[in-house]
């Protein structure tokens, strides 16, 4: 009788196990695509001009999340990509922005500056070491015992280093002076195809001089914005004055072709996705505005950018299909979640808001603090909506930093256009509220400032030294996330997800541990598909 019951239990257990769907095989290749300033509303608005093999294929056959949320202030191309690949906020990974301010030397430097490593095809000294935690790509290298290949390609150094991580074979970016694919000697291996390209006549060094951006199709098809005023065929020469030419090139859709060309060469070489250990290819594209566009608000240029980007994605997907097969490759496409809108207010129209002058505000704050604490320069710098105080001077003078910050904040919050001022002490030790936590997520001790300013919507930050005006916006920009390939089921998810959920989800699909600072849950759709 006992034997019969035991056999029955064993049979039922096996039956239950057999009834469960098998795990999807781990991908042989992951292609992580971050698209700087990709907007979900534009993605949908321009669908009528796309072909069948790019965006429309991804939107129809992929798992589409309507919106990514980044839970920290002052988003940019460095902080957001670091968050995607680490699964953590800047308070953990340490990349608070593209550049950072050094109080001691009064310098603005790259957040990835590292004088211990030389550049390859660049004079910049950079490394991924300022990234304080591990990335998806690091964990893949560790899990495979170093056997997985990891390469990153991006328009800018910060994007390449954040996505390549510490353990990549190499991370490449387009050098701002000569247009070569540059990297850092921190990485010990290079890909011969990149070296060959840099020395060939196809290098951007030689081709940019003949590059002129014109609409790819008749502009009559670019009618998504009924408000566009300058409806004539634009023409932008991208090989202009040295120094400006590469900056304008990186604001154009041609930079996406440059990134895509080198990525497809690697795929066609047969060096990725052909072994037991999964490989990883990290790419960054651009979908933001063009500073030379005449109609900043509703330009034809942005429609042409999305049309061309659609063609590049179609070309990339076809190359992946040919090289390793879509089922063998996990592809994710993530927006950086912000948009640098170059807004032009027509003459005669008065809007809400005003102009905030950081230098004047800094001078007034210094005068106030002098009246309270003595006639010395207490404020070192306004930088990236933060004020940096001279902490060394405050300490040497015997003042309490917490009280000093509180006095400064109480004065600043009375300024026109200032919604709130949050001190670093408040973030680290103060009472919790949602707004303080939001700023705390973007704060890293030793890198961030003492006072964080939240400006009211519509107020322009006016930099008098370089004559620029940036208008503050707090409105929502829809930032999509798409998973495609590797048997990911198609579907549309309308809830907002946190950017920190991407890395644990990709790691789960790779069957490796998540990055060491990632605390978010795996996206539930990936559990449900089992």
Structure keywords:
alpha/beta, Alkaline Phosphatase, subunit A, Gyrase A, domain 2, 2 domains, four-stranded antiparallel β-sheet
Helix count from the secondary structure assignment: 19
CATH class call of the largest domain: Alpha Beta
Largest sheet properties: 10 strands, mixed
CATH architecture grouping of the largest domain = 3-Layer(aba) Sandwich
Number of strands: 21
- Alpha-carbon Rg, integer: 25 Å
Q: Level of helix content?
A: 25-40%
Alpha-beta classification: alpha/beta
Give the amount of beta strand, in percent: 15-25%
Instruction: Report the span from N to C terminus.
Output: 36 Å
| Shape designation | globular
Unreliable parts: 4-21
Order of strands across the widest beta sheet?
A: 5-8-7-6-11-1-12-20-2-21
Please identify the oligomeric state: single chain
**Could you say what the CATH topology of the largest domain is called?**
Alkaline Phosphatase, subunit A
Structure write-up:
The structure is a single chain. By secondary structure, the chain is of the alpha/beta class. The protein folds into 2 domains: 30-111 and 119-275 and 286-341 and 475-486 and 510-528, Alkaline Phosphatase, subunit A, CATH 3.40.720.10; 355-471, 2-Layer Sandwich (Gyrase A, domain 2). Helices cover 34% and strands 19% of the residues. It contains 19 helices and 21 strands. It has helices at residues 2-19, 40-45, 55-61, 77-86, 90-93, 136-143, 157-164, 192-198, 204-207, 244-250, 254-268, 300-323, 358-373, 391-396, 401-412, 424-429, 434-441, 502-510, 524-528; strands spanning 29-36, 63-69, 99-102, 107-110, 119-120, 150-154, 170-174, 181-184, 212-213, 236-237, 279-286, 329-335, 355-356, 379-382, 386-389, 418-423, 451-455, 460-463, 468-471, 481-484, 491-498. The strands form 5 sheets. Strands 5-8-7-6-11-1-12-20-2-21 form a 10-stranded mixed sheet, with helices on both faces. A hairpin with a 6-residue loop joins β7 and β8. α11 runs parallel beside α12 and α13 (358-373) crosses α15 (401-412). The longest helix is centred in the middle third of the chain and has 24 residues, at 300-323. The model is unreliable at 4-21 (pLDDT under 50).
């Amino acid at each position: 009788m006992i034997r019969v019951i035991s056999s029955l239990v064993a049979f039922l257990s096996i039956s239950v196990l057999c009834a469960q769907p098998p795990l999807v095989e781990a991908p042989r290749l992951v292609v992580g695509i971050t698209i700087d300033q990709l907007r979900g509303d534009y993605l949908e608005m321009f669908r009528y001009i796309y072909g069948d093999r790019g965006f429309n294929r991804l939107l129809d056959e992929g798992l589409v999340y309507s919106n990514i949320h980044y839970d920290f202030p002052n988003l940019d191309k460095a902080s957001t990509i670091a968050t995607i690949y680490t699964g953590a906020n800047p308070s953990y990974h340490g990349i608070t922005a593209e550049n950072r301010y050094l109080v001691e030397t009064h310098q603005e430097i790259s957040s990835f500056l590292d004088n211990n490593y030389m550049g390859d095809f660049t004079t910049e000294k950079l490394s991924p070491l300022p990234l304080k935690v591990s990335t998806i790509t690091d964990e893949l290298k560790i899990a495979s015992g170093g056997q997985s290949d990891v390469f990153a390609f991006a328009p800018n150094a910060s994007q390449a280093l954040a996505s390549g991580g510490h353990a990549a074979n190499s991370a490449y970016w387009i050098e701002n002076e000569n247009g070569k694919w540059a990297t850092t000697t921190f990485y010990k291996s290079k890909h011969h195809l990149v070296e060959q390209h840099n020395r060939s006549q196809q290098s951007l060094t030689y081709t940019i001089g003949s590059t002129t951006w014109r609409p790819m199709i008749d502009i009559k098809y670019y009618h998504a914005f009924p408000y566009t005023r300058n409806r004539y065929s634009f023409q932008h020469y991208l090989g202009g004055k040295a120094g400006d030419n590469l900056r304008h090139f990186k604001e154009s859709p041609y930079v996406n072709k440059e990134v895509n060309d080198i990525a497809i060469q690697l795929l066609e070489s047969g060096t990725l996705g052909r072994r037991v250990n999964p490989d990883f290819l990290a790419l960054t594209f651009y979908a933001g505005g063009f500073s030379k566009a005449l109609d900043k608000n509703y330009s034809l240029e942005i429609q042409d950018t999305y049309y061309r980007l659609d063609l590049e994605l179609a070309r990339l997907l076809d190359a992946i299909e040919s090289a390793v097969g879509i089922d063998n490759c996990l592809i994710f496409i993530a927006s950086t979640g912000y948009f640098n809108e170059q807004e032009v207010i027509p003459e005669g129209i008065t809007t809400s808001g005003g102009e905030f002058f950081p230098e004047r505000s800094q001078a007034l704050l210094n005068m106030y603090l002098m009246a309270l604490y003595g006639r010395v320069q207490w404020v070192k710098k306004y930088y990236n909506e933060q004020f940096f105080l001279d902490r060394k001077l405050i300490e040497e003078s015997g003042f309490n930093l917490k009280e000093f910050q509180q006095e400064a904040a109480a004065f600043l919050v009375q300024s026109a256009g200032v919604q709130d001022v949050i001190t670093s002490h408040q973030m680290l030790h103060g009472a919790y509220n949602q707004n303080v936590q939001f700023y705390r997520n973007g704060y890293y001790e030793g890198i961030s400032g003492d006072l964080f300013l939240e400006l009211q919507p519509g107020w322009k930050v006016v930099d008098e030294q370089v004559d620029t005006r940036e208008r503050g916006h707090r409105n929502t920009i829809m930032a999509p996330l798409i998973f495609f390939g590797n048997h990911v089921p198609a579907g549309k998810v309308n809830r907002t997800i946190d950017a920190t959920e991407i890395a644990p989800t990709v790691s789960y699909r790779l069957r490796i541990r998540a990055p060491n600072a990632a605390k978010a849950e795996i996206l539930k759709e990936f559990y449900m598909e089992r």
